[in-house]
Every structure is written in structure tokens, then in C-alpha cells.
Structures
1.
Amino acid sequence: MKTSTLALAAGLFALSGAVTPAAAALKVITTTEDLAALTREVAGDRVSVESLARGYQDPHFVEAKPSFIIKLNSASLLIAVGKELEIGWLPPLVTQSRNSKIQVGAEGYLDASLTARILEIPTGQITRAMGDVHPLGNPHYWLDPRNGRLIAKAIQNKLSALQPADAPTFAANYAAFDQKLAAAEKRWDATLGPYKGTKIVTYHRSWPNFCDRFGLDVMGYVEPRPGIPPSPSHTLDLIRDMKAQGVKLILIEPYFDAKTPNSIARETGGQVLVMTPSVGGVKEATDYIALFDYDVKLLADALKQVTGH
Ligand SMILES: [Zn+2]
């Protein structure tokens, strides 16, 4: 029934000549809103783009919905963060989509991590022992604008290969994004410059790339290991270290329980700041640059308060 309806629809389109460029264009599905936003920068209106996860969700633990399978079934390109960020939810969906174009290794599958700068790559044996969710290095790498640029470039190359007629547009859009991002980076550097070297704590290891780029020093984490909830002994150690080093700011992602961070803040005289790691995490973070605009301002205001300068 479904097949015949589709065939009928295709026939009608062909007869009426109603196939518009938009209808014929690539259908891109991304795992996260950050990748969707970067795809939109490069693609403009030449492809359709949709993200599976929402920006306010923990990208490690997204609830897989049947609608995701339907979206993947008709996709021409799937762009994933990789480094096992989506390993808890994406692989079965890709299998169940029965779409040979987007299987891992196929032309319609892009692992955005392959050309990005990845931090915290474990040395020695790779293991998921104790539930560490970052076994291949840190998968939150999009939070460095230099990586945003590298991801956008990889997307430009992939879109150009899949839809060559629009390659000049993708190249021009990339160049415009590159310039816009460079101007924004000057702005962010100026705002965060006074706080270089400030020590902070974060809940999850979401921010190593961000902090590396802007010169902040992450001295500890509320989670004992990535993906492992706080334990009393780890929390006590963290409070002791924060007091000893005068650390006053705890960044938490919107999807974690603030109870432990709040009690750490009470013990240390510090502050908890909820900062969103993804486009769409808050209404202001409408695109990749707007995400940084929002976070940089929020963070600078908090750093001003805790450092007194
Ligand atoms: Zn993570």
C-alpha cells in the first residue's frame, strides 16, 4: 500500500513536472542540532536538514523514537558526531532504517569527528570499563569554533560530492560562514580574555574544547567519570580541592540534576551556572554562532561575579 502510494505520488510529480529543486534536493538527517545548524550554514536552502536529538537532551542518552527510523529511511545523508557519542541509541535505528545509503561506511554517512581536533584520547587500551562514555576521546568537540569550521568544511565536501550541481553555492556559503565565525571569535575572545587561566569545575566533560579555546582551566568534574553519577566520596574530594584552590564556579549542563552541584556550591561559597552545550538548548541558541554568543555572555557574567574583576 505504502509503496504503491509512493509510486503513484512520484508518477504524479513526473507527469505534472512539479518536481521543484527543493523536492529533489538531498534530505540530510543529523544526530544533533549543532550538526544541523552547521549543515544549514553550508547548505542554505539547497538541501533539507533535520536533527534527531533536540538541543536540550543529553546527546549520550537520547530516547529512540519510531519516527527517527522513518526519517532515517528516506535520508540521503546522515551526519553523526561520532566518537561513540550516539552509541547508546543510534546504531539500531540506522540498522532498522533499512536504508543502505546511510549505513556506516556508505557514501551517505558522515562522521563529523574524523576531521575535527579531538581531545582526551585515551592512551593505552581502549575500554568502556566502569561505564566511561568517552572511550575514544572527547565527543563534545563541536564546542570549539575552530572545530565548527572543520566540521562545516567536511559537510561542504560531502554535500558537494552528493549534489555536485550546488557545489559552488556550498563553497560560497562556507566562505561566508568562515568570515562570520572569525568576526564572532574576536568578539568572544574580547569578552572572555580577562578570565584566562581561571579554574572552574564542570559537571560532565562537555567543555574541554571550549575551555581550551578560551583559556579556562577545568580543575575537576562533578561526575567521577564521564557518564557516572556523582558519588559521596568523589564529591567530598572535589569540595576539598575546590576550597584549596579557591575555585568558585561549577558549570552544569541543563539535563543534569543540580542537587549535588548546589550542595558543592554551598560548601565552597561558589556558584552554579547552567550552560547549554547545544544549539536549541535554549531559545536564544538559534544557530552555531548564537550558541556561543549566549554561552560566552552567560559565562563572562558569572566569571565577573566569582572573580570580582
Ligand atoms: Zn560526554
2.
Amino acid sequence: MFGSGSGARVASVSVDLDSVECYYRIHALDGLPPPDARFAILRRCLPRFRELFARHDLRATFFVVGRDLDEDADGRALLAELAREGHALANHSYSHPYDLVRLGPVAIASEIDRAHGAIAACAGVPPLGFRAPGYEVSADVIDILRARGYRYDSSAFPSAPYYGAKAAIMGLMQMIGRKSGSFLGSPRVVMAPRRPYRPSAGAPYRRGKLDIVELPVAVTRWLRMPVIGTSLITAPEWMRKRMVAAALNEPFFNLELHGIDLCDADADRIPAELIARQPDLRRPLAAKMAALDATLSEVAAAGAGFQRLAEVASQAAAAA
Ligand SMILES: [Zn+2]
């Protein structure tokens, strides 16, 4: 079903719930976010996603950072409600270490297992999928997920333009003496398949025969431009439409969003130093919501049905 042909049949929407602190680390800002902003993603942005998805009658997949469940009872309660409403909660590690793949098997397993336990307790069912912090996965990560019965990983982001931009920004930051908390992984990812595949043993970005499915994040066909929330909410309207149309030419549109995509920087009390470094925070919430509303309407108009990533993984596994 995902091997050939054109015309989208399936779309999945997932939201990575990276906390405001994660963006502090990326931009090498000192200290922790102030208390007002610290839990803004789960308390302020998440309810907006709930309304957006209800308007489009879709069940999404939320990638949850385990530690947030332990530190924020309000956020945990909201995520439990979303799980009861039919949304899936999946594993986005315990503390969102950008260099997860460099930590070694024991620490990687601990990051995955602690988040697994916290998310299973919150949702009432164990998570079936994983997305690595910063999109960087490794053979160790895949082996640990397989040993725990995970059905899918959705970390591969096979976009040369994204990889190049990240490398450039990290290089510039280093030049001015600020070390980003972000991590530049293997460049092999830019050649990974764009469609769901079974990874190869020892080479997660190559097609193989392992008993887990990799669900790559959407990129366009030739230039491999990233079709993710960040690009859709910051692009001019004509470009957003083109990117979505390109993604809808594929059998499967894996649309990845971030909690911060629906942030209202002023109302959510985001500190000015972060707004200055994060262009999407300078876009009005209404414009960002309109871009995502239009995108979801275009998916439905193209005849694609919304499914959670675990369902897509089951079908891809059966087809592979
Ligand atoms: Zn993340």
C-alpha cells in the first residue's frame, strides 16, 4: 500500500510535546524558563490542538516527554483525557536528551523505559511508538524498541535542506561562542527512504527486514523540503499550499507538528529572549491556527483518511 502509486490514502498527524525548556537548550539560553512559561506547552498549547483536531474529527498521536508527566499534574490530567478521547500517546523519551544516540545502551534504555512507564500509567495503555529527540535514531535505539515490542519508530527526517540548515545554525552559534544543546546526527538520514519501511539491522536509515516499521516524517519528493508544522506556519500561504499538495501526492502523509506551533507568545508569557530566537513565536496565533486548519481541510478534501501512527504501522508491516 505504501510502496508505489500516488494519491494520498492515509494521513497521520502527530505532535511532539517538547517543553519550553527544550528550546532554551537549543538556543543555548541560560537557566530555566520562568515558572509562568515552564509548563506552557501542555497547559496552554495542548488545549488548542484538542480543539483543532475536534474540528477536523481526527485522532492524533502525541509524542510525550515522560518527565513532564511527573512534573506537571495538570498536563498529565489533560493528556489522560485526550487518551480517553481516542488520541494515542507515544514515547518521546524521558528527558528529551538531544544526544540520546550517544548515551550508550543502558542510558538509552533508561530514557525509553522511564517514559514508557509514565506514559502507560497516564494513558491506561502502553505506547506503541517512539520518536527520538531531534529526529536522531540509531541501531541501539531500534534494538531497544524491538526488545520492548514497539511497533514503530517515527524519527527519520530525510531532508537534506533541514539537515543543512541545522548544521549551518549550529556552526554559526559555535563561531560566536554559544554551544547549542541541539545535536547533529548522522548525515545518512538524508538518504533514508521517504515512505514507511522496515529498517536494516545496524542501519536504521536503510531498508531491511527488522520486525519494526520506520515511519519517516513528510518531505517533498525531489528537493526533500520538510513538510512539518514549523514550515507550514511560517511559510507564505502560496508556499504552504504547494508543500501540502506535494505531500498529498504520496500514499502516506506523516504530518509532524510541535506543541509550540500553537503558542501565543504574549498570552503564554514566553520570555522575550526566546521569542527573539524562534521566528514562529513572532507569528500571531490566529495565523498559525489558520495555516493548520487549512492544511487539515486540504488533507480531507484530497480524500485522505486520518489514522494514528500505530494503525499506519500495522498496515505497513502487513504490506512489507
Ligand atoms: Zn522533540
